[in-house]
Amino acid sequence: MHHRTAVIVGASLSGLMTALTLARIGIHVTLLERSDDTGRTGAALHAPGDLLQRITGLDTSRLPRTLSPGIQTWFAVHAALRAAADADPRIELRQNTTVCRVAQDEQSAWAVTADNRTHHADVIIGADGHRSVVRRHVIPNKPDATFSGYLIWIGIADESAIRPAHWPRNVAFLTSRDDTLLGYPLPGADGSTAAGARRIGWAWYDASNNDLLRATGCLDGTVVRHSLLAPSIPDATYAELARRAHAQFPSPWSDAILDSIDRHAVIGTPIAEYVPDRLVNGRIALVGDAAHVPTPMTGSGFSESLHDAEALATALATTAHTNPSAALAAYEKDRLVSARTLVQSGQGFSRAFARGAL
Ligand SMILES: Cc1cc2nc3c(=O)[nH]c(=O)nc-3n(C[C@H](O)[C@H](O)[C@H](O)COP(=O)(O)OP(=O)(O)OC[C@H]3O[C@@H](n4cnc5c(N)ncnc54)[C@H](O)[C@@H]3O)c2cc1C
């Protein structure tokens, strides 16, 4: 093995998955994560347990039972990956560590953090999400993901609070003239699937609040800066959402939305997209949302990130690639077309849904 150390920037789902696949081939991994708690979207993911287990070696008995095939909360998947990474002696996680820039020469690559430390490794992997700092080094002429023209409101409600007359058996996909809603039954926060202890998650696509995103600084031109957190959502917007939910969506989905609105437990996530032209520059590579940002409507951002993690480990384990740059070039060759195709597959939906709302 010619490549013994890796620094991964970002310890969310992609960073953790990549750390696990690289550690399995004997690479010592340092994960640099800017936050101390990466709990972020509250969204649900299609996370097939068998694929997760095969690629990362994760013990999927750590995941809660699902109520719809393969649908897990972001938090449950993150917690299971984090526990597996914590248990692996080849993985070191440093939280509260923000990477400001990355660089490289013939001998190594390095990440410079906000506390002025420099972390050297054979390779650096950018798993730092849709606003990636590492992407600025890899693709300096196209550094930013661009706003797709709509946001997704996200919430989760307890069955015990909404007491629905009918419990949904599966994921629901509802469309009206202006809105699209994805609803999904989930286990309770403690993993319980017993009646009365479950939850309903919802994701509501909305192209009519882009001015609010601009006014609150979530958008800067076409670049997404951050999500719209509950305290920043004006009362008038909550009231308007409640009116529309009541008018457009049937029970139990409308009940779940109205409950989340009552508790002000709603996040607005502006959706961005990024079609990559490259994934690699020398000893530095991108995975996950740093590499490719599809609309969540594709339902495949997570599994695409899993395949990135697998392909990267395969390339770095291949002894024929005598230097890190050659291994990473093989990774790019393996993944670039798939990543581009995924993002492009969602762009038709995004353009039709945004309908000039940009
Ligand atoms: C609303 C929504 C719904 C979705 N639904 C689905 C779905 O149904 N199915 C699906 O497959 N995918 C879905 N996705 C996509 C999926 O969530 C992502 O593809 C997946 O989580 C991979 O994320 P990531 O780890 O690459 O990036 P992120 O989750 O963005 O993580 C990036 C990490 O890097 C850290 N970081 C950033 N910058 C720095 C820095 N400078 N220094 C150190 N650390 C840094 C951040 O703190 C964060 O922890 C959805 C996404 C959204 C927003």
From TrEMBL:
All residue ranges annotated as the FAD-binding domain in the record: 6-42, 78-138, 269-344
Domain of life according to the entry: Bacteria
Record's keyword terms, sorted: Monooxygenase, Oxidoreductase
MF term (GO), any: monooxygenase activity
tRNA processing as UniProt keyword: no
Keyword Chaperone: no
Annotated Gene3D superfamilies: 3.30.9.60, D-Amino Acid Oxidase, subunit A, domain 2 (3.30.9.10), FAD/NAD(P)-binding domain (3.50.50.60)
InterPro entries named in the record: DhpH_subs-bd, FAD-bd, FAD-dep_Monooxygenase_BioMet, FAD/NAD-bd_sf
Domain 2,6-dihydroxypyridine 3-monooxygenase substrate binding: 147-257
Pfam families for the chain: FAD_binding-like, FAD_binding_3
Protein name, entry field: 2-polyprenyl-6-methoxyphenol hydroxylase
